[in-house]
From TrEMBL:
Gene3D superfamilies: GntR ligand-binding domain-like (1.20.120.530), Winged helix-like DNA-binding domain superfamily/Winged helix DNA-binding domain (1.10.10.10). This is GntR family transcriptional regulator. It comes from the Bacteria. It comes from Pseudomonas weihenstephanensis. It holds the Pfam family FCD. SMART domains: FCD (SM00895), HTH_GNTR (SM00345). Residues 20-87 form the HTH gntR-type domain. The keyword Lipid metabolism does not apply. Coiled coil: none annotated.
Length: 234
């Protein structure tokens, strides 16, 4: 008889979790396990199992799951409850079209308010991307670069929506970048974005971002199309 493996067995809890920290600790633990693949797509996440693992009530568990659902890492399915969301949905093109609108607005609002520390952070992420050989880290560095340019946008709800799209892209790149034969992400776009942001050339910077995201849409669309053609079900 096969032994059923507990999907949460990869998550380690090193000490009792304080009540006031429970939600954030559970959220961060699950997020890390989803992003690094320990909790694969489609894995069901049971509230009672999480509550037992962390030694807490179900209330902070429910709050953590709601946060992760809002970030696009979990989704609720009928009869199954919360499950780890797919790396990229069939509606990915619609998601990118929405990202174009949201990120363009975030950049437009943020650029005039960026300071030298923001520019230094963005430049450091570009440098790190140029030398990073661990493809699992490239998506994270890409997300951090974009967040460095968007972070001064005063509309926090807008930033929250932008971050959902960036996390979705990070997960997709983490597991598919090598198969897409892209190697490290092209840095020309990032360097141009940073140069234009430094010069406070807001409209030109937004235009460059739109071109950058359109190129990403084209690459992902082509990759997904090839995957469908090569699928044994086709």
């Amino acid at each position: 008889m096969a032994v059923k493996i507990n999907p949460l067995s990869s998550i380690e809890v090193h000490a009792p979790v304080a009540a006031h920290q429970a939600r954030s600790v559970i959220e961060e633990s699950l997020r890390n396990a989803i992003l690094d693949g320990r909790l694969p797509c489609g894995t069901a996440i049971r509230q009672e199992a999480l509550a037992t693992l962390f030694g807490v009530s179900r209330m902070p568990v429910r709050e953590a799951l709601r946060q992760l659902e809002a970030q696009g890492l979990l989704r609720v399915e009928h009869y199954k409850g919360a499950v780890v969301a797919p790396l990229i949905e069939d509606s990915s093109l619609e998601s990118y079209q929405l990202r174009l609108l949201l990120e363009s607005e975030a950049l437009r609002l943020s650029v005039p308010l960026l300071d030298e520390q923001d520019f230094a952070d963005a430049a450091a992420y570009i440098q790190a991307l140029e030398v990073e050989t661990d493809l699992s880290k490239v998506g994270t560095l890409n997300r951090l670069f974009h967040q460095a340019l968007y972070n001064k946008a005063p509309n926090k709800k807008l930033l929250a929506l932008v971050n959902v799209g960036l996390v979705e892209e990070e997960r997709f790149l983490r597991f598919n970048l090598q198969q897409m034969n892209l190697g490290p992400l092209a840095q020309d776009d990032h360097r141009t974005l940073l140069q234009l942001a430094r010069g406070r050339e807001v409209q030109a910077c937004v235009k460059e971002l739109e071109l950058h995201l359109h190129r990403a849409v084209k690459a992902i669309t082509q990759y997904l199309g090839n995957q469908k053609q090569n699928s044994p079900d086709v």
